[in-house]
Each structure stands twice: as C-alpha cells, then as structure tokens.
Amino acid sequence: MLQAPQRTALSGPALVRLLSRFADVDVSEPRQSLSGRLSQWLGWTDAIALSSALTGAPPAVPAGARSFGSAEEAECARVRASLVNTITGDSAFATSKRRGPAYREPPAAPVDYVVFRQRYQAMQQSMETAVGSLRGRLRALLAAKTPAMGRLAVVDAVMERALAERERSLFASLPALLAGHFERLRDAAQQAEAATPAADEGVPAAAAVPAASGLWLDAFRQDMLSVLLAELDVRLQPVEGLLAALRTR
C-alpha cells in the first residue's frame, strides 16, 4: 500500500509552522545560515552603520538615567498582556461558543474575508506601535547601564532600522496567505453541504451541514487567532533579547 510522504517537522518559530500547515505546503529547513541571510538583507549603508556600532567607541553612559528594575519588568509584562487581550478579545475572532450557544452565522449574509483582513491589519498596527515603543524604552535603559551595554543598544537600533522595511513587508503578506486558508475551508464546507442529502429525501433536517452554520468559520477564526498570537511572539523576540541583557549584572 502506498503511503503519503511524511512532512519534515520544522524547528522554526510557531508562526512558520502554522503558516506551513494552513497553506498546505511542505517547507524545508533553510540551508543558509541566519548570518548569511542577514547579509543579503542589509544594504551597504546599513552595513557601514552596523560596523561603526560594533567597532566604534562605545557611547558614554548618561548621568542620572533611570535604571532597570521591577517596575520596568512589570511594564513589559503589561504591554504583552495588553496586546494578547486586545487580540483574543476582538469580536472578529470570537467563535460561536464565545458568542453564546444560541448564536448562528446569518445564513443570508455572505461571509467576506475583507472583514478579517481589516481586523488582522489593525492588530498588526497595534502590535507594531506598542512593541516599537517598548523596544525604544528598553534600549534607553540598556544604554544607561554600561558602555558595553550602550553599544548593544546602538546595534539594536541599527538592526531595527535596517530590517524594518523587510519585516513590515513580510508581516503584511500574512493576511493574503490566510485568505487562501479561508477560501479552502469555505469551499470544503460548501462541498459538504452540496453533498448532504436534502431533508425531503428522507434525511432529517438536523443532519444537514450548511456552509453558513459557523463550524468552518469558527475553525478559521481560531486559526487566524493562533497566527496573530504567533506573530506577536516573533515581534517580541528583540524585546526579550533586550530584557535578557538588562537582567544581567
């Protein structure tokens, strides 16, 4: 008996694994190292700025700057929790269970992906603004510790500027990738509905599976929610790196 080939398990971020599964594609591990890929993303002006940050004199520690402590740790946790709550609390991603047992998708209203795309993009804007602001504040705290930490803060600032455009472009492609997932789930539900015998053929009406019943849409909402939370984790990785540096003594 022939067996379907097994996909190779990815070891990358959850975001990549989710997109690979939802797009139904087999994504192989990258052959190129991270440093090799970054070298292709950095322009010559970025390379000069990065070289200056790494080899130049470390910046002086500003006098009277606020130090890192429990209050700053709590603020970072608050920002993360606020973003998570904003994403999970958005009504566009609420499943029928969260909407109430009596809720049903209006059968007369066609489900349009444009609503989900707009909400996803709004969430991305919230994440970009909040994470960027938090990252800048942590860099300021890092620069106030030691000259070596100040150099690290400069390197982080250079990398953020150098990769911002590519990062924004890659994240902007996610709603389009999810559109394909939305269409596949919807089409599968419609095919299931078409294949279900009608009630007047001796099948109880309760056995029908209408495409607008909300089952496939609930699945899509949960999948989109998972992608948003995974994207948030990726966006917060530089913040986690700065926090790790700030926690060192």
Q: Can you tag this structure with a few keywords?
A:
single chain; 249 residues; mainly alpha; 10 helices; DUF3348; DUF3348 domain-containing protein
Total number of helical segments?
10
What is the CA-CA span between the terminal residues?
61 Å
Indicate the radius of gyration in whole angstroms. 24 Å
Instruction: Sketch the major β-sheet.
Output: none
Topology:
Blueprint lengths: L13 H9 L11 H8 L2 H12 L14 H19 L7 H4 L13 H31 L3 H26 L1 H22 L19 H21 L1 H11 L2
Helix pairs in contact: 1-9, 3-7, 4-6, 4-9, 6-7, 6-8, 6-9, 6-10, 8-9
InterPro entries: DUF3348 (IPR021783)
Protein name: DUF3348 domain-containing protein
Description:
- This protein has helices at residues 14-22, 34-41, 44-55, 70-88, 96-99, 113-143, 147-172, 174-195, 215-235, 237-247.
- The chain has 249 residues and is an all-alpha fold.
- It has a domain at 111-195 and 208-249.
- The termini are far apart.
- Mean pLDDT is 80; it is low at 1-9 and 203-212.
